[in-house]
Design brief:
The structure holds two protein chains of two kinds. Chain A is mostly beta strands. Chain A has one domain: Hypothetical protein YojF (Protein Yojf, Chain: A, Distorted Sandwich). Chain A contains two helices and nine strands; from the N terminus they run βαβαβββββββ. In chain A, the strands form two sheets. A six-stranded antiparallel sheet of chain A has the order 1-7-8-9-2-3, covered by helices on one side. In chain A, strands 4-5-6 form a three-stranded antiparallel sheet. The longest helix of chain A has 10 residues. Chain B is an alpha/beta fold. Chain B has one domain: LmbE-like (Rossmann fold, 3-Layer(aba) Sandwich), CATH 3.40.50. Chain B has a seven-stranded mixed sheet, with helices on both faces. In chain B, helix 2 runs antiparallel to helix 6. The chains are: A mainly beta, B alpha/beta.
């Protein structure tokens, strides 16, 4: 993955507008956060292969970035995005990594279902 | 360490075996005991991507699968089973069906010893769910036919609730194999290795005790 280039990411987001796409979205503190620090409130969420269409998608902010997708009946968004990649399957992979290189958030848009 | 007929190791993530169990595995293999390692997931939800990132969410499972095979090779494990579950979802599977899979392994392999996590004392929900499935499967057998269960526990309350571990295996003779297995899980352990490499080189007593002793709690069925 590379550091976000907003122009390239925005172009990739635009290429999926009004098309059927599959979404992977996750946020996580890691399964050990509350084990290492018992006062830490661990929370996360995960959805894989949500089939949606969006009419608007944007990357905003000065980095780490925010990405929002306006879908037919609602919204999808992620914040803390630092890196991106357009992989060999034409999927837009977005992720936010902390200073230690640990993934904290991921938002991925794919024209085909994720494995 | 007692000579076993067959050892079945059941963990949910590649590298779960590395720190606390790989020396025990290597010792059984050295003793000529067949070892089967059933690993439920490919650690798809691992968070360690590196800075700068060396991989991404979609490629990580491929890397971890290769690392798991390499760790098994380093330990001499001939029978590695990847069960195809998904990281962080094990606890949401149907408990009876998951136990059926464990019963299938037990019926097929007839192990005298199973090594897994101690349900309720293993911190990660996948660890607890995996241990619980093994316990459920073993409990289906008549007491005389049950394999012994050696469980790994490391929750903050495990010693308070379970007492001290009753099995401590000194794995010093196979420490090199253990280190090779830990190193094989490079995406997960490289950073940690960098932190302790100096201590390893100097045979730091605390690190050597940590590396050379593997602790288990024998599961008590009630």
């Amino acid at each position: 993955m590379e550091l976000v280039n907003t122009k390239q990411v925005q172009e990739a987001i635009n290429s999926f507008v009004n098309k059927e796409v599959y979404i992977h979205l996750e946020t996580t503190n890691g399964a050990y956060a509350s084990h290492r620090n018992q006062s830490f409130f661990s929370a996360g969420a995960y959805i894989r292969n949500a089939k949606v269409q969006y009419e608007i998608g944007k990357i905003t902010g000065k980095g780490p970035y925010r990405v929002g997708l306006k879908i037919n009946l609602g919204w999808i968004y992620a914040e803390g995005i630092t890196h991106f990649e357009i992989d060999e399957l034409g999927r837009l992979l977005l992720a936010g990594h902390d200073n230690e290189g640990k993934l904290a958030v991921a938002l991925e848009i794919s024209p085909t279902p994720f494995e | 360490m007692e000579k076993e007929r067959h050892v079945l190791v059941v963990f949910p993530h590649p590298d779960d075996e590395a720190f606390g169990v790989s020396g025990t595995i290597a010792t059984h293999i050295k003793n000529g005991t067949p070892v089967t390692y059933a690993c439920l997931t490919l650690g798809e939800m691992g968070r360690n991507m590196g800075n700068p990132p060396f991989t991404n969410r979609e490629n990580l499972p491929k890397i971890r699968k290769a690392e798991l095979k390499e760790a098994a090779r380093a330990l001499g494990i001939q029978d590695l089973r990847m069960l195809g579950y998904r990281d962080k979802t094990v606890e949401f599977e149907d408990e009876e069906k998951l136990a059926d899979v464990m019963s299938g392994l037990i019926d097929e392999l007839n192990p005298s010893l199973i090594i897994t996590f101690y349900p309720g004392y293993a911190v990660h929900p996948d660890h607890d769910a995996t241990g619980a499935a093994v316990v459920r499967a073993a409990a289906r057998l008549p007491e005389a036919a049950r394999p012994t269960l050696h469980c790994v526990a490391f929750s903050n309350d495990c010693i308070e609730k379970l007492g001290e571990a009753d099995i401590i295996n000194d794995i010093t003779p196979v420490a090199e194999k253990k280190l090779a297995a830990i190193k094989a899980h490079r995406s997960q352990t490289e950073q940690m290795f960098a932190d302790v490499s100096e201590k390893l080189k100097n045979q730091d007593p605390q690190i050597m005790v940590w590396i050379n002793n593997e602790r288990f709690w024998t599961y008590k069925f009630d």
